[in-house]
Every structure is written in structure tokens, then in C-alpha cells.
Amino acid sequence: MTTLSFHNRHYALVTETWRPQVNGVANTLGRLCDGLLQNNNRIQLVRPAQPGETVGLADNGPLEELLVRGLPIPGYRQLQFGLPAYRRLLAHWRKSRPDTIYLATEGPLGWSALRAARQLSIPVISGFHTNFQQYSEHYRVSLLYRPVVAYLRWFHNQTLLTLTASNTQQRELSRLGINNLMLLGRGVDCERYHPAHRDAELRRRWGAGNTDIVLLHVGRLAAEKNLQLLQRSWQTLRENQPTGVRLHMVVVGDGPLRPSLERDMPEARFTGALGGAELAAAYASADVFIFPSLTETFGNVVTEAMASGLAVNAFDTAAAHQHIRDRYSGCLAPPAHEELFLDNLRWLVSDTEGRRGIRMHARHRACQLGWPSVLQRFEGYLQRSCSPPRPLSEVVPGK
What we know:
Helix content is 40%, strand content 19%. The chain is α/β, with parallel strands linked by helices and 399 residues long.
């Protein structure tokens, strides 16, 4: 086995979303960047400037940030895409050449970074963090599906390797004709997300007593998240509420669909986006996690909920497929089988002992999913791409 030495490398990470923005891509990229810095690497972070920031170069020791111009995503002003920066990246990378470039997003900024890297013969690997090809249906632009798939296939096949979040995503991308796929996976912080953060006072503010059941959803409130099923789930449970059981719905997150959801679910409590200790307390203070999305590359909220000791009800895809055993550490329904999804939810609410066992097993499974092994794999892929003595597909760090 070849031993990889992780230190004193110079990597560039290109992304169109970054903390404090609240989404899975920003969360994952932050973790990966922090891990590289802790291993004494130099990092160039190329991203759009956020409100209040100035376009330009900010040198913070081992982390150098190159901020470029961006524009808000239509219909979703909380997020933005980076404008092309080909000439600027070309000039910067000629002066300060990274060993390898990691492209986390495929928008105009990622496209221009790919062009510049190819011009300078800098190795590039990419990550598939967002299932953009599935969004066309939800935003009523289904005619764009084929062009989007063709572009994503072209983009990722220009890179040495494309890293995926889950086995189901890897199979889907392979069917779309994307080559050189390798599993990166995701971790979860089991100290931050812990049942010990359960807060009786928070539950009281939600109107929930000690024996009441709090249903929780965490995520972006946008069309691609299948939130009509969240609404239907809440309505179904309220119409068929078990005798002696009081139910409460809490929705954490923000996005363009929040006003319509608040109108259609007036009994639910909407908190807006939460982070840090507030988010950890919200998870731990609930009982059942409802996750109806079918467009996830992974779904970090699933493993965060599991780590917090919640019973997760989800479809059998992405993180749920990879880490949940049906009716043992959560409940799974085949993708798009809404009636089984609802049946599972009714069972979780009505079966106290079954729910208690699932919550215990969920926490146990989540605690096996630490970030260190993910970071080791990521850095191994980056380092091997600098000067690969053998095909990247043969290198699986940590094995």
C-alpha cells in the first residue's frame, strides 16, 4: 500500500456558495477546507463576493480568498452564481500556481476556472454537489433537462475525477454518462448533533409537552424539495391523529416557498434558518424527522437528525439509502411511493416502542460516520491528482 504524505500542498477550491450561507454544499466545502488547512496545506478559495464584501484578493496566511463578481440566482436571492472570471484566474494562477484545482460547482465561475486550468495544464478534479438536472421539472423548464445533462456530462468528463456523495448518486451519474466517478461520502459531527441538546424550554415554546410528539423538517424551502408532500404528511397526521397523542410540526429553514407553506400550514411553527447551537437544540428537541426530498446528492440533514437521536422518515435514496435500515434505524419508502411514505410516518407516530428503538439505532449508526475518514479520502484524491503514478480510479485512500 502506498503511503500518502498530506502536507505543504497548494490547492485551489472553486465554489459559488460559501458559509455563512446555509446549504449542504457550503457546509461540506467548509469542512473540507478546514481539514486541508489543519494538515498544513495552502488553500486558494475562489468564490463570489457576498453582500458587504469587496471583490478582490484577501490573503489570510494559508487561506487566500479570491473574491469575484456574482449575481443572485433568479427567484432565490439568498444564493448567487459567480460570473465568469477566465482572464483573472488565468493571470492569478500564472503568478500563484496551485498543485490541483477542485471544482465544487459547475456554474459560470466553475466553467471559467475549468478553461483556465486546461490552458495552464493544472490538474482538475470535480465534485457533484447538486442535482441540477433534476431541478428542471420542479421549476417548470423540463425542456432544459437534456441540455443541462449534456453540459454536466461534458463538464465533469473534462476533469480527472468526479467525487460523489452517495452510492445512489454514483449510479445515477454513471447512467448519465459521467465517467471516472469515486465515492467521497459525507461525515456528521456527533458532538454538535447530540440527544443531550434536548431543551425542555424550547419544546414549551413550541407548545409541546413532555409526552407530545414533535415532527421536524430542516432544509431549504424551495420547489425541488418536494414540500407538497411535507404539507400532505402534516394534513394526513392531523386528520388521523392517534388517540391521546398531541402532534406539533416545526419547520426550520428559509426559501422562496416559505410564505405559501406558512399560509397552507397555519398550525406549524416556522423558525427560519438556524445554525450552530440553535439548530442542534432544534434537532434534539424533536422526535420524528420528515424528509420528503427526492433531489438530494446526499442530504446532510438526514445524518444530522440521526445523530440527534431522531426517527427519520425518508425515501430510499442518497444518505437515507446509505445509512438507514428500514424500520430499524429509520423508515424508508421507495422513491416517489408517497402512500408508503405516509404509512411509515403513521407507524412512527403510533408505535411508541418502535420509535424508541429506531431513535437509539439511528444515533448509533450516525456515530460511525465521522469526518476524519472523509477528509482523508478527499486529500488523498487531491494529492494523487498532482502527479498520478497510476490511474486515480485505483487509488482509494484509507483502504
